[in-house]
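Practice problem 4.
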């Protein structure tokens, strides 16, 4: 199967790419505008942050997070009703404009981010001997939060549009819990550990990062798009537009070529549908209930990986050392579910299935191409991460008399998807792109028209 796929890939139809480079005179011309545009954007962004404070009673400051399921050996942890109370406020450390590279260099600092909710901890083995559980309130405070990186600028109409965010966050955290040991005695406990040891904080962070990046994109885009490309460059914008179009064609052409090969790999390896792990949860009808229920799913699935597609134009960054292409992709048909589950609660012993459809998915992918005399293209998938999961519809069948459990099971499905199953999906996508890169690099060493076309394509990608 893979042999036939390689034969098919050898007939790749490469896009035509016209390379455009700025003259040194025009580079100098652009550089004189960078400080003024940068000053205007920073001022407008700071004003927008101040405006958020003035309008704090009229904008969204409470952000809901999905349920999280964690398994530590036989111990099951469920975090629910998680909320972030935060007024959008990104403090500018640096916000640099680089017109020649069509990007923004950003460095922001954030105030403390408190995430609060409920926790319940159960031990499966212990339940058979002593049916007890621990529950209470949990708060995770993220401190010293920074976001730094590069934002690609596209030119759409007469506006600069910040579209692709190659950013990284740093943070510290403190986890605190509170619970009652009797009606009148409340216990509070805190734990502060190195970030790498904070399992709960790291798990919540993956979802919190989605919220922060989405807000950052909305806030920054609202400011930057207001600036006219033509007016900002005193009507001398034509060459910059040509550069933007050349970079867009390169980035999209390169990514689409690799994505096509990656999808061929997924189909040939029968990975249009991938298996995901089961999950197990102990639950009660209510906290005062004397009965504990057990919910066990079978293996799950995610499909259809063959519908992976680019969501928008990608960004490109190139210097003497490397070329980077980055942007987002999604699945037109993202189906997730469990063909079977079983649950026992009181006198009920039920089986059923769970089916979910995720209508909005954003997966960030960054490809790097290192330049060297020994190997002109040292290529790899440098970063792949979930940026957004939204608009999820979940259908539960088989619960019958336990219909009150349906909303809870749906939160479990989404929580397990975020905390566990998405990592498996990302690994499969990364493996597919790694195969595609290897296959394309292999073509450049072959003889004949296939090798000639491949080498010509890659030569057109690298302008330096």
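Answer key:
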């Amino acid at each position: 199967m893979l042999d036939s796929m390689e034969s098919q890939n050898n007939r790749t139809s490469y896009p035509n790419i016209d390379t455009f480079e700025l003259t040194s005179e025009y580079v100098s011309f652009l550089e004189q505008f960078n400080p003024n545009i940068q000053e205007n954007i920073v001022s407008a962004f700071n004003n927008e942050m101040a405006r958020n404070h003035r309008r704090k009673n009229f904008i969204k400051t409470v952000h809901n997070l999905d349920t999280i399921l964690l398994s530590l050996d036989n111990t099951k942890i469920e975090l629910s009703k998680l909320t972030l109370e935060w007024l959008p406020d990104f403090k500018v450390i640096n916000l640099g404009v680089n017109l020649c590279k069509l990007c923004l260099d950003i460095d922001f600092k954030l105030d403390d981010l408190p995430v609060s909710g409920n926790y319940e901890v159960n031990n499966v083995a212990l339940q058979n001997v002593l049916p007890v559980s621990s529950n209470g309130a949990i708060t995770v405070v993220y401190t010293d939060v920074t976001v730094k990186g590069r934002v690609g600028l596209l030119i759409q109409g007469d506006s600069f549009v910040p579209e692709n965010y190659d950013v990284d966050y740093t943070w510290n955290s403190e986890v605190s819990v509170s619970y009652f040991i009797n009606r009148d005695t409340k216990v509070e406990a805190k734990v502060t550990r190195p970030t790498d040891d904070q399992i709960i904080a790291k798990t919540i962070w993956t979802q919190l990062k989605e919220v922060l990046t989405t807000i950052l994109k909305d806030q920054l885009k609202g400011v930057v798009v207001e600036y006219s490309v033509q007016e900002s460059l005193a009507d001398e914008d034509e060459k910059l537009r040509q550069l933007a179009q050349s970079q867009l064609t390169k980035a999209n052409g390169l990514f689409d070529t690799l994505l096509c090969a990656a999808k061929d790999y997924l189909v040939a390896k029968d990975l249009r549908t991938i298996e995901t792990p089961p999950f197990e949860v102990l639950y009660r009808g209510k906290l005062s209930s004397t009965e504990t229920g057990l919910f066990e799913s079978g293996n799950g699935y995610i499909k259809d990986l063959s519908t992976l597609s680019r969501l928008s134009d990608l960004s490109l960054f190139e210097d003497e050392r490397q070329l980077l292409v980055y942007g987002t992709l999604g699945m037109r048909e993202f189906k997730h579910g469990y063909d079977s589950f079983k649950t026992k609660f009181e006198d009920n012993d039920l089986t059923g299935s769970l089916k979910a459809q995720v209508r909005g998915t954003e997966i960030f992918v960054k490809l790097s191409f290192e330049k060297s005399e020994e190997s002109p293209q040292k290529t790899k998938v440098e970063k792949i991460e979930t940026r957004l999961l939204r608009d999820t519809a979940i259908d539960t069948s088989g619960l019958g008399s336990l219909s009150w459990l349906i909303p809870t099971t749906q939160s479990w499905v989404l929580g397990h998807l975020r905390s566990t199953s998405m990592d498996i999906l990302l690994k499969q996508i990364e493996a597919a792109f790694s195969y595609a890169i290897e296959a394309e690099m292999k073509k450049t060493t072959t003889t004949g028209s296939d090798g000639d076309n491949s080498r010509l394509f890659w030569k057109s990608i690298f302008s330096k």
